[in-house]
Amino acid sequence: MSQHQLDSELIRNLASLLDETKLTEIEYQRDNVRIRVARTLPPANVALPPVAVAAPAPMAVAPAAPAAPAVSAAPADHPGMVPSPMVGTTYLAPEPGARPFISVGDTVQKGQTLLIIEAMKVMNPLPSPRAGVVKEILVTDGKPVEYGEPLVIIE
């Protein structure tokens, strides 16, 4: 019974955080417990990201870099894709003006920091899940990301 009370309190805290930060959803996972809190207003918003968000990005990138769409066309399907483990804001360097953690063409080791995701005012380093070469960085510094969004491609 105390477990259910703890979950209720956690859900209330996540809902409050959702309102404070103006996020559309928050997901919390620990061991076998997974809690997802989302705003009830935007059911249409759930339908928009797969089509509306994915379509404009390649169109905007295609004129600037003709070679990029071949890799960027479906980064979620790429076997070397590293997804965002949380909703937050990405930072490519440890502090403003510092050298980025990684660049395209860099060789990275398993566990090496790829970038930082700020969530709930906590800086969370994202470790590389495997060793390899950075083929593409799919996010920009200071931009928000959603849970599961492709961040980096490592081959």
UniProtKB/TrEMBL annotation:
Pfam families xref list: Biotin_lipoyl
Whether Lipid biosynthesis counts among this entry's keywords is yes
Q: What GO biological process terms does the UniProt entry carry, in alphabetical order?
A: fatty acid biosynthetic process
Q: Which residues form the Lipoyl-binding domain?
A: 79-155
Per UniProt, the keywords (alphabetical) are: Biotin, Fatty acid biosynthesis, Fatty acid metabolism, Lipid biosynthesis, Lipid metabolism
GO MF, any single term:
acetyl-CoA carboxylase activity
Record keyword Lipid metabolism present: yes
The UniProt entry's GO CC annotations, sorted and at most eight, read: acetyl-CoA carboxylase complex
* General function of this protein: This protein is a component of the acetyl coenzyme A carboxylase complex; first, biotin carboxylase catalyzes the carboxylation of the carrier protein and then the transcarboxylase transfers the carboxyl group to form malonyl-CoA.
Please state what the protein is called.
Answer: Biotin carboxyl carrier protein of acetyl-CoA carboxylase
Q: Which organism is it from?
A: Elstera cyanobacteriorum
